[in-house]
Write a structure and sequence with these properties.
The complex is a heterodimer. In chain A, a hairpin with a 2-residue loop joins strand 23 and strand 24. Chain A has 17 helices and 25 strands. By secondary structure, chain A is an alpha/beta fold. Helix content of chain A is 33%, strand content 25%. Chain A folds into 3 domains: 234 residues, 3-Layer(aba) Sandwich (Rossmann fold), CATH 3.40.50.300; 122 residues, Rossmann fold (3-Layer(aba) Sandwich); 85 residues, Rossmann fold (3-Layer(aba) Sandwich). Chain A is elongated, with a radius of gyration of 26 Å. Chain B has a domain of 196 residues. In chain B, 74% of the residues lie in helices and 1% in strands. Chain B has 13 helices and 2 strands. Chain B has a two-stranded antiparallel sheet with strand order 1-2. Classes of the chains: A alpha/beta, B mainly alpha. The interface between A and B is medium-sized, with 23 and 25 residues.
Chain lengths: 501, 319
């Protein structure tokens, strides 16, 4: 392979804006024939948008893409496939009721006058499957019986059946066991050696080093580093991923007073969480960093009783919490949970602001099951004022409010229910910058007034801006919590993408 | 073992129903007689033809609540055409086509207006019933006697037919539909659509065209079921076949069809239709009042859907 050969894919200055967010802000990269090109970057850096542009589910606003020497301007996903670009999504897209062969050739079935030529179908599928030699995969087997790893092989075979020359893989190892990762890498090398190019998206530097030849780092929608992997060190890659200015959104704050331990978690295990231990004291904000899918949300949900636990102890203000106690019982013990999915499970969007604030605790504004509407309005107004909700009327539906005000309503509810331990999952997701600053101030002032805060965030600057201590979650393992001063964005990133044995 | 049970489970259920009624009947000889068998088969024809269409729709991940009304509408259409002096064959074709148009409209509302199938066809349930009453002047339409009336008689006139001609028609259509679902590219794509619509779309399957075809095919079959209804009553009745869609859906689900799509078989659905028919016939023979039948059939529907859920959760756990 010579360096002078024209690249298979050349992307220049591609841009894309979704409403107010600039998803891609000038991406340049080139992929040669028969190479594995890795794209890395934090959550939200624009990796998925770029892949969706290549597979034609999203149209770019500007820039140019050349594929196989000509301008690439696909009309729809089918058109992209005809050009030879196959996209393997993070969540697999197979039809579980159909057989392996039927899935591989779905949309391009061998046929005679509309009749399915089943013999040719199974024969051609067997030919493609031969490359991978996976014992469990036979053409006639229903896909519902296969493991996730085997399904991935079927997806790759589907890409081969369309004679793809470029395969996009979006975090293909996120749900695989170690042995399956090895098998997948073996398959990827086979594809590469046969002249097929692969764009491989991953968070894990070790994986990238093992499988990729070249790489591009995306940060805030821009390609900041691109080139052969041999030329850059892991340190350089990490600082390219996180290097962005921390703005002054964050309130000034003094040190947290050492006070009584509010929440103690010992060796907690749940689906996606292994032996997590952490202590949160009154008056402090403890942050949990980590990648999406690393088990952070699962940990918070397990603490709030929304997910069954396999083992471990939870102690609340010195009293043990039974593993089978319901969220309702946990609210009574002073635990409050702010969901990352505000629209889906955080708020009842069609109900009024007042209803949403008082939803988890009607007792101060009801008598014998009857809601005292005046009292409810008064109490809701008080809570709303204390968190600076900007709403015309407490009777307005919560869906009329901006994202920031909705989030403040959700926090006001935690206060109304008398919550002492706040479990906050991505408290500033989908919130405008102005409201963000107010929410940071609110969280800090709540902590300083004696509440304990456990906060999960994907946005490192905000963790550094308001947390007193920080722990990092990586593939279900929670690191020890260290004072915030002991971390740098680089060490956090390193811990987040470390592959734990 | 699991797959074996799924294939033959409905047959066992059918045998069980027959055995139970034969056992509790004062006159098991009459219940099991050839004459009664003919009656049951003739009674099954409408639900069986409907179940063939419904199987295609349900396997494709859809649902249709309008067959009962469509049957009334097309039955009235057939009777009106006969009254107007059309030949029986033309009247039959007109009724079937009207059914196809109803199905096409369902498909268009579902694909272009993006209304979920449940609501779209619930709307059509009202609309088709209303049109049936409108064009019939809210009265039964008397049709001149033609060979159409012989389609559903229990004892056919050339005795070598053994069972009513409608039974043979239903059987032939079932065989055709089963071959189509299994052996043609279209049939496999119906399964793909019901199994994972996003995946099918990503694989380049033309979803909109598929859905229009599926609901139209279903409609054509419901139209034919309407002709059978007219044949049985010997007149077009705009108020007939209320709730028949539930019998049809129940037949498909009892026969192994999954309301989540991607699963189901014509053979299973026919057995499901027979189970419903033997249940009704058995209850009648026992002299049980109508309400007992309704309670039993209602329970069977709930049980069948519960079994569907159970099967589904096990499938997910196994994956």
């Amino acid at each position: 392979m010579t360096m002078t050969e024209a690249p298979l894919l050349k992307i220049s200055d591609v841009r894309k804006r979704f409403g107010a967010t600039l998803a891609l802000d000038g991406v340049d990269l080139a992929v040669r024939r028969g190479e594995v090109h890795s794209i890395i970057g934090e959550n939200g850096a624009g990796k998925s948008t770029l892949m969706n542009i290549l597979s034609a589910t999203v149209r770019p606003d500007g820039g140019s893409i050349r594929f196989q020497g000509t301008t690439y301007h696909p009309g729809d996903p089918m058109d992209a496939r005809r050009h030879g670009i196959a996209h393997i999504h993070q969540e697999l897209s197979l039809c579980p009721h159909l057989s392996v062969a039927e899935n591989i050739f779905l949309g391009i079935e061998p046929r005679r006058y509309g009749w399915l030529d089943r013999r040719a179908l199974n024969q051609q599928a067997a030919d493609i499957l031969k490359t991978f030699q996976h014992p469990a995969i036979t053409p006639e087997r229903p896909v519902a019986e296969l493991t996730i790893a085997a399904c991935q092989i079927v997806e790759i075979c589907r890409a081969l059946a369309q004679r793809a020359s470029l395969i996009l893989m979006d975090e293909p190892t996120s749900s695989l066991q170690h042995a399956d990762v090895e098998r997948l890498f073996h398959s990827i090398r086979q594809l590469r050696d046969s002249g097929i190019s692969i764009i491989y998206i991953s968070h894990f530097l070790e994986e990238v080093r093992e499988i990729a030849d070249t790489c591009t780092v995306l940060r805030d929608g821009k390609s900041v580093v691109t080139g052969p992997l041999g030329d850059v060190s892991n340190q350089e890659l990490i600082s390219a991923m996180v290097g962005r200015p921390v703005n002054d959104l964050f309130p000034a704050r003094g040190p947290a007073a050492t006070a009584e331990c509010a929440l103690e978690v010992q060796n907690l295990s749940a689906p996606g969480v292994y032996n997590a231990s952490v202590q949160v004291r009154r008056g402090e904000i403890l942050g949990i960093a980590g990648l999406i899918g690393s088990g952070r949300t699962e940990l918070l949900r397990a603490l709030f009783g929304l997910q069954t636990t396999h083992g471990g102890n939870i102690t609340v203000f010195g009293q043990p919490l039974l593993p089978q106690s319901t969220p309702e019982a946990r609210i009574e013990r002073g635990i409050g949970y702010l969901s990352e999915d505000r629209k889906g499970e955080g708020l009842a969007l069609a109900l009024s602001v007042a209803d949403n604030i008082t939803l988890t605790n009607f007792s101060p504004c009801s008598h014998w099951g009857w809601i005292d509407l005046t009292g409810q309005l008064k109490q809701a107004q008080k809570r709303a004022d204390s968190v600076q909700v900007r709403a015309g009327n407490m009777n307005d539906a919560v869906q009329k409010l901006s994202g920031g005000n909705q989030q403040k309503v959700a926090i006001a509810r935690l206060l109304h229910q008398g919550c002492e331990i706040l479990l906050l999952d991505e408290p500033t997701r989908g919130v405008d910058v102005g409201s963000k600053a107010q929410i940071y101030e609110l969280i800090v002032s709540l902590a300083r007034s004696g509440k304990a805060v456990l906060m999960v965030s994907s946005y490192l600057p905000e963790l550094f801006g308001i947390c007193d201590r920080l722990a990092v979650m990586s593939r279900g393992h929670l690191s020890p919590a260290l004072p915030i001063g002991a971390w740098t964005p680089e060490t956090v990133m390193q811990a987040a993408i470390a592959s734990t044995e | 073992m699991k797959r074996w049970l799924q294939t033959f489970g409905p047959f066992f259920a059918l045998l069980l129903v027959i055995i139970i009624f034969a056992a509790i009947s004062d006159n098991p000889g009459r219940f099991l007689s050839l004459a009664n068998l003919r009656i049951v088969l003739a009674q099954t024809v409408i639900v069986a033809i409907g179940a063939v269409g419904m199987t295609i729709i349900i396997v494709g991940g859809g649902i249709d609540l309008s067959p009962g009304s469509t049957i009334a509408l097309t039955g009235v259409t057939c009777a009106l055409a006969l009254q107007a002096g059309w030949t029986p064959l033309m009247a039959l074709a007109a009724a079937v086509l009207v059914g196809g148009v109803v199905g096409l409209l369902n498909g268009m509302v579902i694909t272009t207006l993006r209304v979920v199938p449940f609501i779209a066809t619930l709307g059509m349930l009202g609309i088709a019933r209303g049109v049936a009453k409108w064009i019939s002047g809210e009265q039964t339409v008397n049709a001149p006697a033609t060979w159409l009336n012989n389609l559903t008689v229990a004892s056919p006139s050339p005795s070598w037919l053994l069972v009513s001609p409608g039974v043979w028609i239903a059987l032939a259509l079932a065989v055709l539909a089963a071959i189509m679902l299994r052996r043609t590219v279209f049939g496999r794509r119906v399964f793909a659509l019901g199994s994972n619509e996003t995946a099918a779309r990503a694989a380049g399957v033309h979803i909109m065209r598929m859905k229009l075809l599926i609901y139209s095919l279903g409609g054509l079959l419901f139209g034919l079921a309407g002709v059978m209804q007219m044949s049985r009553l010997r007149q077009g009745d705009p108020t007939v076949a209320v709730g028949v869609e539930l019998d049809i859906i129940a037949a498909v689900v009892i026969g192994g069809g999954s309301l989540a799509g991607g699963e189901g078989s014509i053979r299973g659905s026919l057995v499901g239709a027979l189970i419903m028919a033997f249940l009704r016939n058995g209850c009648q023979q026992m002299g049980w009042p109508n309400y007992i039948q309704e309670i039993i059939i209602g329970s069977i529907i709930v049980l069948a859907v519960a079994a569907d859920r159970l099967r589904h959760s096990r499938l997910q756990a196994g994956a």
